[in-house]
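Batch 3, record 17
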Amino acid sequence: MQEKLQDYFSVVFEPELLKEIEKFGVYKVIKENELLIDVGGSITHIPLLLNGAIKIVREDDNGDEIVLYFLERGDTCAISFVNCLNYNKSGDSKLNYSKSKVRGVAEKDSEAIFLPVAKLSEWLEKYQSWRVFVIESYSERLNEMIEAIDTLAFMRMDQRLLKYLQDKVKIMRETTLNATHLQIALDLNTSRVVVSRLLKQLENEGKIKLFRKKIEVLEY
DNA sequence: ACATTAAGTGATT
DNA sequence: AATCACTTAATGT
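Prediction for the assembled complex:
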């Protein structure tokens, strides 16, 4: 764990903070499709992603879902973190953790260090580098959310689909994606039939190539 | 050989 | 863009 911490964060964090992270953080290997946090689940730890990718999904009461954004190497879900802070301040004395409004699923095998929320606010006061990191991360997440809203509000389904595929290529670092039409439909909150048709269209336009349970993206 | 799951398609709203 | 109803193709047992 130390080496990996060094690799990714030695430039970002001061040595003392790194030591603390080593001490209180729990290193974990996350398998593809593993559920990290579900809607309504308590947030007890915040992940510091070493590598891999986590898909953050919003789910409403009917179980309809929309992909908000992906967490990548060096990312953390600062939104949930700040959420925790607010909760604890305004909060009761009991050790209640705030509830997650999103779901996090591993998009591929990943490694992360899980940090207990209690430590995080402490570090906020102690370490300058931690403050910077959290604020930057927060702003990144916010921008990604705005981007997600834009695509949702202003783009037609075919464009959204293409963007989805291209984003995924970026995150997976592979041009050939493993995904069924149904899975994609769920991510975009549409029906499988629509996805199938639009994918066919994209294939005819020469932008992608279709296989069974696989899609090769040619333009990205 | 049969059942199950993934993908393709026309017609309708 | 969604839904229905149906077909075809690939895969698992």
